[in-house]
């Protein structure tokens, strides 16, 4: 029988394969001239058609009541996590390459860890070796990301970002022809992004985060960069850069320092938790009224 931990790591690995394919499909779609606003709309409509019936029939008894606070969270998550994320990504991918776009995501694990520490979701003890390993891992990860950025170059122009915000604010593509699918490649890219990424991969990601936490889920991103680099070198003839290789090594080293630090912290906390449990149980077994022999 497969253990829960093995299922978790298998799912995280499969997730990176899905996203690696998405980088390639999106690059092909952008080469055909697809609109950066129309594509996310079609992608999310496809995902909604897929997920809505499944969510209704499989989880209608388990879903929590929809309150105004939940609706606000859904709106912010949709605005930031879907609309702005996909918009920024498409603008960046249109001005760079699939390898560079995936390499930029390698800063996510370090940022996730820092946010988790600030929000007290992740502990950090600098007086222990595991705490020092976490800090060194974050520094190495960020350093590797900067090395990759300097080697490959920063191609996202400020005007492209202004154009993106203008597109989001307008919330409507002015050119009606942009809503037409001009090639089979656009249709395949929309189906892949909608079904695999916004549908299947999103469900897997939610499950992996609930089981392993956001930090563990983010450490697999360097695998995505490696897969994209291999596929892009075959499909688009992209070259490998020395800075990219060195940066990837630093990132992977940093990420696994963080993982090692977390595992050591978990091991060191287990005796403390058992001791606290014994102390609590000793209080529970004591009688409420003490009897003294006269």
UniProtKB/TrEMBL annotation:
The keyword Secreted does not apply. The keyword Membrane applies. Its main location: membrane. Signal peptide: none annotated. It is found in: Membrane. It comes from the Eukaryota. InterPro entries: EamA_dom (IPR000620), EmrE-like (IPR037185), WAT1-related (IPR030184). Keywords: Membrane, Transmembrane, Transmembrane helix. Residues 17-137, 168-259 form the EamA domain. It is a multi-pass membrane protein. It holds the Pfam family EamA. One of its GO terms (cellular component) is membrane. GO terms for molecular function: transmembrane transporter activity. The chain crosses the membrane at residues 39-57, 69-91, 103-121, 152-172, 187-208, 215-234, 240-259. Belongs to the drug/metabolite transporter (DMT) superfamily. Plant drug/metabolite exporter (P-DME) (TC 2.A.7.4) family. PANTHER family: WAT1-RELATED PROTEIN. This is WAT1-related protein. It comes from Vicia faba (Broad bean).
